[in-house]
Amino acid sequence: MSFDAHTYPYSSQRNVVYGRKGMVATSQPLAAEAGLDILKLGGNAIDAAIATAACLTVVEPTSNGIGSDCFALVWVDGKLHGLNGSGQSPKNLSIEAVKEAGYEKELPKFGMVPVTVPGTPGAWAELSQKFGKLSLTDVLAPAIKYAEEGFPLSPTLAKYWGNAYKAYSRSVEGDEFKPWFETFAPNGKVPKAGEMWKSSGHAYTLRLIAETNGKAFYEGELADQIDAFFQQHGGFLRKEDLKAYKPEWVEPISVEYRGYQVWEIPPNGQGLIALEALNILKGYRFTEKESVDTYHKQIEAIKLAFVDGMKYITDPSSMSVSVDELLSEEYANTRRDLIGEEAITPEPGTPQKGGTVYLATADGEGNMVSFIQSNYMGFGSGIVVPGTGIAMQNRGHNFSLNPSHDNALKPGKKTYHTIIPGFLTKGDEAVGPFGVMGGFMQPQGHVQVVVNTVDFALNPQATLDAPRWMWSVGKRVHVERSLSPHIAEALTRKGHQIKVEVDGGPFGRGQIIWRDPETGVLVGGTESRTDGHIAVW
């Protein structure tokens, strides 16, 4: 691919990064370097991805943990494979049980109730067994070392850590939350940037996972500890729920966009939203990136795709329409016809009948991995299993308590999932992995990455540094302060309710690695909005 060398003036002015033998891009430097070390030990891109992901549970616990879910797109030997590493709801968790617990409108954000089965440890083991070159013990060694010996917090990490402590201090109470405070604010003190933090319990758990290829988590010692803690505090998760879990290999889904194939994980992930939006957008031609029309049409397309996603995406067994129906050319034409010159309030369509941390890795052999892992809402549920470092996710919060909704809570069901890895190919060749983490920003970030790359030929770093926007509800759109004021004003005249974010904002954090099919040279970009880092060989 050829790229515009332009870098936006408000960005960090970092140059795009090149390499040949290997590359790891993620939001935390120590984790990226750990992945590169695994490549240098003789591991491949899959080993590096697992090592980086495991390290991120230690060095960026504000976004993910051992109790996370994950998804992966893996390019090996000229084929793209998809792994769904999300877990199901406990068999005793039902709409009736939630309402009996006192929650009438929605599942709570924090506590025992919204915890679903974590898929991450099982997914690490599955990836290692199917595609890895090194043992899981070797691959998890860097994460274990950081957990045992400690590491100094990076600036953005420290900011989110402190924010989480304040939020939990205000919002949660009860003995079940004490282990979180003991683990992440020992002696009542939150670690600051540059200060050391470690967790012997986290190291102990990672070692057991490595030695047993994940079995200790789902049917052994760790499963017993999880079960006992949830029983003690009235939670729903049990050892039998853990034992029933298996990661699922799935066929990735895609749409063609101007000669490229854009790939996502199928539902229960929300990657379908990005694909539907791109299917709508390919009916237009964009000649200028920084124009009102370009922004307007992207926003309108994502709105239409998002309301469809929120209505239909769930465990595939419960979807009332199919992926093919939502991604058909006919349906894209129908949705595109709704886009005019003014902002609309989107409503779900009705197709004709017939769902964080992100990392990307690549090695010198052509293997590439797009991997995303998350607890949801920062640290997740606020539940940490004592002595283990296992911070549990709260994915169950996304279930609906409306029995007629596609994503209605049922025992043993997977919920609508926000985390999504992306991948780009052209013809039979891999272009590479990309992703933008951040809740419901993710499919919107994917659309912006693809448009910036394909329509405007921006290099990976410029693609990530470009001004971002995020639609939230109705006609409300959040934009970065780096967006040109005249474009923001023109969007307002079109009926968009523009909110300029002056202090950060909900715009996610992304990573990109592209590969030149002729030379094998790798080119990467990392997030300027956080402590992003590219480790390269």
From TrEMBL:
This is Gamma-glutamyltransferase family protein. It comes from the Bacteria.
